[in-house]
Amino acid sequence: MKKITLLLITTFLFACGGNKKVIQNTQKKDAIKIESKEEKTETPKPDIHIKERAIDTKIKEIEPQEEKIDKISQQIEQTPKKKLTTVNHQPWDNLLAQYVSKEGTVNYKSLKQNRSALKSYLKILSENTPAETWSKNDKLAYWMNVYNAFTIKLIIDNYPVKSIKDIKNPWDLRFFKLGEKWYTLNDVEHRILRKMNDPRIHFGINCASFSCPPLLNKAFTAQNVNLELEKLAVNFINDPKRNTITPDKVQLSKLFLWFAKDFKIKGTLIEFLNKYAKISINNNPKKSFKTYDWNLNE
Predict the structure, then answer these.
(1) Rounded CA gap, 46 and 293, in Å?
(2) How confident is residue 56, by pLDDT bands cut at 50, 70 and 90?
(3) What is the per-residue pLDDT for 217?
(4) What predicted TM-score, i.e. pTM, was given to this entire model?
(5) DSSP assignment, residue 44?
(6) In sequence order, what are the residues at sequence separation of 6 or more whose Cβ sits closer than 8 angstroms to the Cβ of residue 282?
(7) Alpha-carbon distance 258 to 210, whole Å?
(8) Which residues are paired to 289 by β-bridges?
(9) Quick one: residue 293, left, alpha or beta (phi over 0 = left, psi -120 to 50 = alpha)?
(10) Apex CA 144: angle with CA 140 and CA 147, to 5°?
(11) Residues 218-232, mean pLDDT to the nearest whole number
(12) CA-CA distance, 151 to 206, in Å (whole number)?
């Protein structure tokens, strides 16, 4: 009996001790779970690496834009600047006023003695060729001044002569340089001026001869070129030494024969003449042409 009682007591105590350990183990597990939950609920630390990558990305986006701006700036600096100003024709204007009369006769002898002034102006023309930015009037004035100034140079280089035709091939001599290119007088007249489709140029350029339209004693400029060409057209067409006009009969300068195509750009030759003639010409007048006087216009 005592043995049975002792066995029950031992069993009871063992059971109680085991439960205590179970309880302790359970509490430990719960504590671990609570700690795990607390760790999970802590405020997340900012990811510094992510932010750094975002900043790096922005910097990389900005850098290409700065590179583009730098490249554009370099291109602007390297682009050749176009000429925005034209030639100052005042030196030529001074020479013409001094050595050419109102009637267009030229004092070649005196001009030859002051050829340094002419040379200086020709240098200006050579170093300032027309740019794309120039207006049509600027170009027109430039090329007519070129033709007249280099024609005078040709004469005084060969002076004394009685006629420009005494010089061998005067219009085909490649004797002057503008920019990097050499030119003849024919280049200027036929390949440049005539292609500008303004027939009045024939009254503005002078071939150093009496039958040519008189040399204007002032320089052409962008400001005066249209007005001066209009005046020259009126004066030349109504000059009886160069054209004889009646309603039914016209005796014309050979300019109107040689360059007939130019004067028919906007109609017939008679229509062109009637724009400037003081006497109205009928539609079908009798036409003839005067003998051309090639004697020097001095």
Answers:
(1) 102
(2) low
(3) 98
(4) 0.73
(5) P
(6) 247, 248, 270
(7) 17
(8) 252
(9) beta
(10) 145
(11) 98
(12) 8
Neighbours of 293 (CB within 10 A): 13
> How far is CA 167 from each of CA 164, 258, 278, 280, rounded to the nearest angstrom?
6, 21, 37, 40
Would you give the DSSP letter of residue 214? P
What strands, in cross-sheet order, belong to the sheet with 244-245? 244-245, 249-252, 286-289
Decide: 290 and 251 in contact? Cβ < 8 Å. yes
Retrieve residue 228's tokens: 């001066």
Q: Region 140-157: what's the mean pLDDT?
A: 98
pLDDT in tens, 63-91: 556 565 556 556 544 544 444 458 999 99
**Torsion angle (degrees, nearest 10) of CA 267, 273, 276, 281:** -110
Among the listed residues 100, 114, 129, 124, the one whose alpha carbon sits nearest the alpha carbon of residue 215: 100
Residue pair 153/183 in contact (Cβ under 8 Å)? The answer is: no
Alpha carbon distance 203, 231 (integer Å): 9
Complete DSSP assignment for 60-105: HHHHHHHHHHHHHHHHHHHSPPPP-S----HHHHHHHHHHB-TT--
Strand partners, 296: 209
